[in-house]
Write a structure and sequence with these properties.
alpha/beta; single chain
């Protein structure tokens, strides 16, 4: 098996791949980056572990179903988007391995056999793997959003990279739904510039800077609550000594936002 990279992906808004019209066009550049991602991997993964900003739990929890259902965790979209099916199989053996790695690192973990796919998972994966033929396991973030706890979760899961499991943190580099459009341009520019600079710092500096992310310019405008940033800490922790590459960057996303996605390794 190759040593797989890890990723933090900005996943976009709601069920955008299933929409038409002007809103859908906001995601054209993001779509290109997601489509290109599988072809840039050293080999086809045997499964994907998605740390999703749309699932938080008191302790880290792993999706354990062999055939996950769907969670339509958005509102205000057309009726057909509440009938979407993304029928990628689950991977109970990978879920058990994830739980074992976490517990071996002293991190309490649970398996949820009922949890379905939320749009932090099925939206980007529908673009990356439209055939829904890649086994997928979701991992929750932990309530409290502590950066060091989530870096430690990533470190515990690093062996998966040599076992054919692609680790993907799914969130958004800017997640302030009350400040979109032109009002977001200046603060999102400032936060995105800081984030890219921090992630491209030498590894020994990078994690320390990310622990203090909330001191960055416009940090609390970018993330009034950091649920959509926390998956980045896990992806980073699993590749803590590897270089970061920005694989998607856009100014004017959603009418004014600057947004990015990153590869580690």
């Amino acid at each position: 098996m190759s040593h797989l990279p890890t990723f933090f992906l900005s996943h976009g808004g709601g069920p955008w791949p299933w929409l038409d019209g002007p809103f859908r066009r906001y995601f054209d550049r993001l779509e290109v980056s997601l489509k290109e991602l599988p072809g840039d991997l050293p080999e086809r993964p045997k499964a994907i572990l998605v740390i999703t900003g749309h699932w938080e739990a008191p302790q880290v929890t792993v999706q354990g179903s062999a055939k996950p259902g769907m969670i339509y965790d958005y509102s205000g979209f057309p009726p057909h988007t509440y009938q979407i099916r993304y029928e990628a199989p689950g991977a109970p053996a990978v879920a058990a391995r994830v739980k074992a790695l976490l517990e071996a690192a002293g991190i309490p973990a649970a398996i949820d056999p009922q949890r379905g796919y939320d749009h932090g998972t099925f939206t980007p994966l529908a673009v990356m793997y439209p055939g829904a033929d890649m086994p997928v396991v979701q991992l929750s973030i932990k309530q409290g959003y502590d950066p060091e706890e989530h870096l430690a979760i990533g470190r515990a899961l690093a062996p998966l990279r040599d076992e054919g499991v692609l680790i993907v943190g799914s969130g958004l580099s800017w997640h302030n739904l009350r400040m979109m459009g032109p009002a977001a341009q200046a603060p999102s520019d400032a936060f995105d510039a800081w984030l890219t600079d921090a992630l491209q710092a030498p590894p020994e500096e990078r994690s320390a800077r990310m622990r203090r992310w909330d001191t960055a310019p416009s940090a609390r405008l970018a993330h009034p609550e950091e649920d959509h940033l926390v998956p980045l800490f896990v992806a980073l922790g699993a590749a803590e000594k590897d270089p970061a590459t920005r694989i998607y960057h856009e100014r004017g996303f959603m009418g004014g936002v600057t947004a990015s996605s990153y590869r580690f390794g």
